[in-house]
Amino acid sequence: GVFLYNHLQQKVRNAEALAQKYKQQQEALSAQLQVVYEHRSRLERSLQKERGEHKKTKEDFLVYKLEAQEALNKEKQDSMNRYGALSSQHKILKNQHDDVKKQLLDLQLQHNSLKLEHRKTLESHSQKYAQLQQEKDSEVTNLQDTVFKLREESKLLRKAHQEVHSQLLSAQAQMEEFRQLKEALQKMPGFR
């Protein structure tokens, strides 16, 4: 009986030691699981923040693009109006030139003075035409610079979008690893 009692006491002590060991393992696993949950929560908050920033960046880019398009259309319309005004002025000058030619034919006595006036009119017209051509070239250069800047900004936005997408894929992969770890922990008898 004493031997049986001692044997049972030893088994009880072994069972208690084993239970204590399982309890410690469970506490360690619980702590690890808590760390995993906290890390996942931080990742989810970071992902939400990145999504918000990406959405704001995209909206800002669309607003900027719309404003740039409106400015470009306005510049184009102004250029067309100026061209129309210059065309009308050119026709008027041409008509004046024809009138001067008729006057030259009719009035031989005033030939020299009218010839000088005609030369001055042509020089003025040439200066105006050269000035307008220079302004047109300058406007075309400015429009090309604007298009180049918009393309560069588009490239930067695409790059930023790809980086955010890569971070999102990485976060999803980590969440999948955490999910698998959680399932593995739940399958362990000690965890239950």
Gyration radius (Cα, Å) is: 43 Å
The quaternary organization reads as single chain
Summarize the amount of helix as a percent range.
Answer: over 70%
For the biggest sheet, the summary is: none
| Helix and strand pattern | HH
N- to C-terminal distance: 37 Å
Low-confidence parts: none
Protein name: GOLI4 protein
Coiled coil: 5-60, 90-142
Organism: Cephalopterus ornatus (Amazonian umbrellabird)
Keywords: Coiled coil
In short:
By secondary structure, the protein is mainly alpha-helical. It has helices at residues 2-106, 111-187.
Features:
about 190 residues; mainly alpha; about 0% strand
Would you write up a description of this structure?
Keywords: Coiled coil. This is GOLI4 protein. With 192 residues, the chain is an all-alpha fold. 95% of the residues lie in helices and 0% in strands. The protein is built from two helices and no strands. The protein has helices at 2-106, 111-187. The longest helix is centred in the first third of the chain and has 105 residues, at 2-106.
